[in-house]
Specification:
This protein is α/β, with parallel strands linked by helices. The chain has helices spanning 22-30, 55-62, 109-119, 125-129, 187-200, 225-238, 260-267; strands spanning 2-7, 40-43, 47-49, 71-73, 103-107, 131-135, 142-144, 147-153, 164-169, 175-179, 205-209, 246-250, 272-274, 280-282.
């Protein structure tokens, strides 16, 4: 399984779009791995996680053929993870000679409803016919192509919306926990982690929400480094993390203040990598 981080920032990007704080200025000065676009990831060439407003930039930066994407997972309807208008130019007169004309979209009902509320009016019928929406429910595993996907309830949004984190497995037995955006996990999610470790053993890779950097949070929406390290220790005790599990810190806000090198300094002793835009992992 090839896992690519296309974007690794929180909602505002880094440097943030309207910000002149010292951490944004320093990121701009240093460039390289300190420049972060909104959160998005790609598994192999056919499974895309989230559709932020920076998707088009990712296509240009990475030389991607996004017509190869057959499956789209949406974590939740916040704008940095789902920019619905982007889908209105997939297919029809806007997209010719696509590798995969059909797109399976997986999300909560509220996310689908949001798309049609704000964008349905400008979606051509030809494009509509090429998309199939699949409504997910917590802990109910779905099989799509070579992937088994289990949505888990995230601790992130107000009542009335259903954000997901994901457990993704392929036919070769590789597995990823994609844990964005979420604060501390609910008891039923920990029960799922325990059951998974017992039945399937360690996962291949975990991508941790590390939005708050050095800061402690209120645990309700995001995590910082210290919280991730405590979560990682508990997962290791459960057997969900083994010697071969790749652990990655991801999804950073400029309010967390640490730049790339400083993040690496704190993550490396804990056995964690720090993501950057364009980072590729073979797992």
């Amino acid at each position: 399984m090839r896992f690519t981080y296309l974007g690794t920032a929180a909602a505002e990007g880094w440097p943030a779009v309207f910000c002149n704080c010292s951490f944004c200025k320093e990121a701009a000065r240093l460039g390289g791995k300190n420049i972060r676009t909104r959160s998005q990831a790609l598994i192999n060439e056919d499974l895309l996680i989230d559709l932020p407003p920076d998707t088009y930039m990712h296509k240009l930066q990475r030389g991607l053929d996004l017509s190869k994407v057959r499956y789209l997972l949406i974590t939740h309807m916040h704008m940095d993870h789902f920019y619905p208008q982007e889908l209105t130019v997939r297919g029809g007169v806007y997209s010719h000679e696509m590798v995969s004309e059909h797109l399976d979209i997986f999300c909560a009902k509220e996310t689908k409803d949001f798309f049609f509320e704000v964008s349905g009016w400008e979606l051509e019928e030809a494009s509509r016919m090429q998309m199939e929406w699949h409504i997910l429910h917590p802990f109910e595993t779905v099989q799509t192509g070579p992937y088994r996907i289990t949505p888990l309830p995230a601790s992130h949004m107000r009542e009335g919306n259903e954000p997901f984190i994901y457990h993704i497995r392929d036919e070769q037995g590789k597995s990823v926990l994609y844990l964005h955006d979420s604060g501390y996990y609910k008891d039923e999610v920990w029960a799922y982690f325990k059951k998974t470790a017992k039945e399937e053993g360690p996962v291949s890779m975990i991508s941790f929400d590390s939005t708050s950097g050095y800061k402690e949070t209120d645990h309700r929406a995001h995590m910082g480094f210290a919280e991730v390290f405590r979560v990682k220790d508990r997962m290791k005790e459960l057997g969900l993390i083994g010697p071969e599990t790749v652990c990655v810190m991801n999804h950073f806000s400029h309010n967390g203040q640490w730049l790339y090198d400083e993040m690496v300094e704190h993550a490396a002793p804990q056995g964690c990598l720090v993501s950057y835009d364009g980072m590729k992992l073979e797992i």
